[in-house]
Design goal:
heterodimer; A: about 110 residues; mainly beta; six-stranded mixed beta sheet; 11 strands; B: about 120 residues; seven-stranded mixed beta sheet; four-stranded antiparallel beta sheet; about 0% helix
Chain lengths: ~110, ~120
Amino acid sequence: RKEVEQDPGPFNVPEGATVAFNCTYSNSASQSFFWYRQDCRKEPKLLMSVYSSGNEDGRFTAQLNRASQYISLLIRDSKLSDSATYLCVVRGYQKVTFGTGTKLQVIP
Amino acid sequence: DTAVSQTPKYLVTQMGNDKSIKCEQNLGHDTMYWYKQDSKKFLKIMFSYNNKELIINETVPNRFSPKSPDKAHLNLHINSLELGDSAVYFCASSLGVGGGLFYEQYFGPGTRLTVT
């Protein structure tokens, strides 16, 4: 089993739709979790950290389920500008692992 | 006021050459990283330095040698370049090596290396 797994997609969704991505991790001792966004030919940028109780930032909601070892990202009211690859990141002491990313394409 | 910068942005070179990529961060972070992103877009960590000390050294050919003259700089030197080294190399930094939520990483713009 890979340390961090994501469905590569692509997820093709119409504007205004709600879309959700999951990311599973294998190390139960992992300490923190993040979602990054990477646009084509650009560097990854932090989208949001994932708090234990879940957190929301505008149209984006992140959840953590430690029992089942996954995190999720929900995007509401998708915009064309949300089209990108979303990378899940799992972190422990002196260790950080990126998922392979989920590609989202929002279509008009 | 760029937080993490890399030079050069593009590097085209021939097999067998030696090249260096430089990285600098002005965030006051203690930890810096090198990642390789290949054509399949998988982002793989290569090295990590904390306060100039090597703490992560993944399975990377020893043709790759990182050097950290101070905690704001982490350079990557590559000897005897091969076709398979063609990729985008990203530098990143974080506050420290801890596992908590404070330790998110900030990435440089990447160096696109093409070996011909």
